[in-house]
Design a protein that fits this description.
alpha/beta; about 40% helix
Length: about 260
């Protein structure tokens, strides 16, 4: 289970008062968010650009220190994981702009990361074959990463997250800009991992994809959660037929409050 309590991230930005004068202003990218995600769930974090999705996921993945609040991670028996290294091993994190080594093949890149994770050579080779099968990488797994298409590169990036067999996946826009075949391969992967009892938390702009895939959804706007529930519950709550309409209905309700 992942438990987020009062998670907050505050930044500073320059505000132009007139044509020549600027002043510094503090703002909340994530504003006191609390949520829970259970084992074996696919949970979507939905919202527009600037809503705070990436900042929230980075803090949940341990890549960014919060201004306030915290993130708790528990094992399958409900025991709190406190060791930092163990937390890193439990999570597979996919950033929206992850850079890979262009001169390496996918297989060489995975072997490198396996060594970084401290895995034995035999274990690395076994996991690579498993990852190649799950993500359908065999066709281009020995090609240089710099020669791959956008969709192939994204699958190679996810392979890196999958290699050490994490229990939790945190994905930031995993299907952004991909063609329909590559997108479907990644969606199928998330569904397969759920069936194995893994947890998937991911952000997306694609409301239709989230409506089809997610068990539950947290909609965020301006750094705050404005609604959460299953896609069906959210649509029933707002009297809408799809999540895109749901989001705009919720923004309208928020403005009236």
């Amino acid at each position: 289970m992942i438990r987020v309590e009062n998670l907050t991230k505050q930044f500073e930005r320059n505000v132009l008062e007139d044509k020549k004068k600027k002043r510094k202003e503090e703002f909340f990218a994530v504003n006191h968010i609390s949520l829970e995600i259970n084992d074996g769930e696919i949970v979507g974090i939905l919202g527009p650009n600037g809503a705070g999705k990436t900042t929230l996921l980075r803090m949940m993945g341990g890549l960014m220190e919060p201004t306030d609040g915290g993130v708790e991670l528990s094992d399958k028996d409900g025991n709190l994981i406190t060791d930092i290294v163990e937390k890193k091993r439990t999570i597979g994190y996919l950033s929206e702009n992850t850079k890979l080594y262009q001169r390496l093949s996918v297989r060489e890149m995975l072997r490198l990361f396996g060594e970084i994770y401290g895995m034995e050579k035999a274990e690395i080779d076994e996991r690579i074959e498993k990852v190649f099968q799950v993500l359908e990488l065999k066709e281009f797994g020995d090609n240089r990463i710099g020669k791959l298409s956008t969709g192939q590169t994204q699958r190679a990036t996810i392979a890196r997250c999958l290699l050490h067999d994490p229990k939790v996946y945190i994905f930031d826009e995993p299907t952004l800009g991909l063609d329909i075949i590559s997108s479907q391969a990644i969606v199928n992967f998330m569904k397969q991992e759920k069936q194995q009892g893994k947890t998937v938390v991911y952000s997306t702009h694609y409301m239709e994809e989230a409506q089809y895939l997610c068990d539950r959804i947290y909609m965020i706007h301006k750094g705050k959660i404005i609604a959460n529930g299953s896609p069906k519950e959210l649509m029933e709550q707002t009297g809408t037929d799809n999540l895109r309409e749901t989001f705009f209905a919720l923004i309208g309700e928020e403005k009236e409050c």
